[in-house]
């Protein structure tokens, strides 16, 4: 009887643990030309769990709740996105350039401003 009860408890623990965690994979590309974007930050909203895309724009991240999880996607020069997982295991994300952010960076570079007073 004790062995059956132990097996049942272990089975329930395993089932609940596997239902709790899911792996999501995907690829991040640029809307401008469809090229992969390496180094994009992919964070699970409300946690410290996250990853970054590799050289091919691919990522893999573990999430706690496939239905309610939102991925925060960001990279310099692109508009940040919040992507609901909605029970998907494969999510491909297309990032649009953030022209506002680029317009703030480019004038400073072209004027030759430096943090040491121009020396």
Mean pLDDT: 81
Strand content bin: 25-35%
Helix content: 25-40%
Q: What Rg, in angstroms, do the CA atoms define? A: 21 Å
Number of helices: 2
Tell me the strand order in the biggest sheet. 3-2-5-6
Alpha-beta content class = alpha+beta
Return residue spans where pLDDT drops below 50 for at least 5 consecutive residues: 8-13, 15-19
| Element string (H = helix, E = strand) | HEEEEEEEH
| Strand count | 7
Please describe the biggest sheet, giving its number of strands, its sense, and whether it closes into a barrel. 4 strands, antiparallel
Global outline: elongated
Distance between the termini: 82 Å
Note down, in words, how this protein is organized.
- This protein is α+β, with helices and mostly antiparallel strands and 119 residues long.
- It is 26% helix and 31% strand.
- It contains two helices and seven strands; from the N terminus they run αβββββββα.
- The protein has helices at residues 2-20, 99-110; strands at 22-30, 41-44, 50-52, 58-63, 70-74, 81-84, 90-95.
- Strands 3-2-5-6 form a four-stranded antiparallel beta sheet, with no helix packed on it. A three-stranded mixed beta sheet has the order 4-1-7.
- Residues 8-13 and 15-19 have low confidence and may be disordered.
């Amino acid at each position: 009887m004790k062995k059956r009860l132990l097996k049942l408890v272990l089975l329930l623990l395993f089932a609940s643990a596997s239902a709790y965690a899911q792996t999501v994979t995907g690829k991040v590309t640029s809307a401008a030309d469809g090229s992969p974007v390496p180094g994009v930050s992919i964070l699970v909203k409300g946690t410290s769990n996250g990853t970054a895309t590799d050289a091919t724009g691919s990522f893999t991240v573990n999430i706690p709740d496939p239905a309610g999880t939102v991925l925060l996607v960001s990279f310099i020069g692109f508009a940040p996105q919040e992507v609901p997982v909605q029970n998907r295991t494969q999510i491909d994300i297309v990032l649009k350039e953030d022209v506002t952010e680029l317009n703030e960076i480019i004038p400073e570079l072209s004027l030759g401003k430096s943090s040491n007073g121009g020396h």
